[in-house]
Design goal:
- Helix 5 (about 150-170) links the parallel strand 5 and strand 6 (about 180-185).
- This protein folds into 2 domains: about 5-185 and about 225-250, 3-Layer(aba) Sandwich (Rossmann fold); about 190-225, no CATH class.
- The chain is about 50% helix and about 15% strand.
- The protein has 8 helices and 7 strands.
- The protein has a 7-stranded parallel sheet with strand order 3-2-1-4-5-6-7, with helices on both faces.
- The protein has helices at about 15-25, 40-50, 65-80, 105-130, 150-170, 190-205, 205-215, 225-235, and strands at about 5-10, 30-35, 55-60, 85-90, 135-140, 180-185, 250.
- It is of the alpha/beta class.
- The longest helix has 29 residues, at about 105-130.
Length: about 260
């Protein structure tokens, strides 16, 4: 198992990619600290993992708060024995508005969660990561590859997160800590299904028709799943990627090439 005996902090656990990452990390032998703004979903996932005889703990936290992030690190260390990897999956989607019309308070909120939240949790976990020559994986978005309008605030914050990954890779490399980014594209899960269902009211197309329309534009002619993106995350978190740092890996079924 790729993560046998290791502890992974999954910051940003929900019913899509966060869940897939947590389940895959656990399947590969890791103990997992599940971090979310709300308590109920993470606690339910902990119970599910406990039923599979896997170690997990839920932590409710606002990841823009240094004190909350310190509590996450302390909980993972005290209850799971330390921290070997941090996966940052939390995000603030922001509103759909142009730069001219947007409430910049909303854009700042996206920056706080999507960029500074990652820095806060990484800083809080550094003590343990340095001891274990750990790994950090930042989850990014197709918006940094193919800008969709009007999502400027979200795209700007994700671009900042992308550069933060390279900065951290350079600065933490001397400690043996690797920092990489997974850039997901269209990802078939609850959020996209809901998006298609909402859009169908305006465009008259069924969810299935919209799926095939998007899939037809991708090289593999299908939309990647959260589980497939999670596989890439686990690889980068593991020692199989021991000489890989400062890199970005696109998992997008061929939506764009880099």
């Amino acid at each position: 198992m790729l993560l046998e005996g290791r502890t992974v902090v999954v910051a940003g656990v929900g019913p899509g990619l966060g869940r897939a990452i947590a389940l895959k990390a656990s399947e590969e032998g890791a103990a997992v600290a599940l971090v979310s703004r709300g308590r109920a979903y993470a606690e339910a996932l902990v119970e599910e993992l406990a039923g599979l005889d896997r170690r997990a703990v839920a932590v409710q936290a606002d990841l823009t708060s240094p004190h909350a992030c310190a509590r996450v690190a302390a909980t993972a260390t005290d209850e799971l024995g330390g921290i070997d990897a941090v996966v940052y999956n939390a995000f603030h989607g922001g509103s759909e508005a142009t730069a001219e019309d947007a409430d910049l308070t909303d854009w700042r909120a996206s920056m706080e969660v999507n960029a500074f939240g990652a820095l806060e949790i990484v800083r809080a976990c550094l003590g343990s990561l340095k001891q274990r020559t750990g790994s950090i994986v930042l989850i990014n978005s197709r918006q940094i590859r193919r800008l969709g309008q009007p999502r400027g605030g979200y795209a700007m914050s994700k671009a900042a997160l992308f550069m933060a990954g390279q900065v951290l890779a350079k600065e933490l490399g001397p400690y043996g800590i690797r920092v990489n980014t997974v850039v997901s594209g269209w990802m078939w899960g609850p959020a996209v299904a809901e998006y298609f269902a909402t859009a169908s009211k305006a465009n008259g197309k069924t969810v299935e028709e919209q799926y095939h329309e998007v899939a037809g534009s991708l090289a593999l002619r299908r939309i990647a799943t959260p589980e497939e993106v999670a596989e890439a995350v686990i690889f980068l978190a593991s020692t199989k990627a021991s000489a890989i740092t400062g890199q970005s890996l696109d998992v997008n079924a061929g939506e764009s090439f880099h």
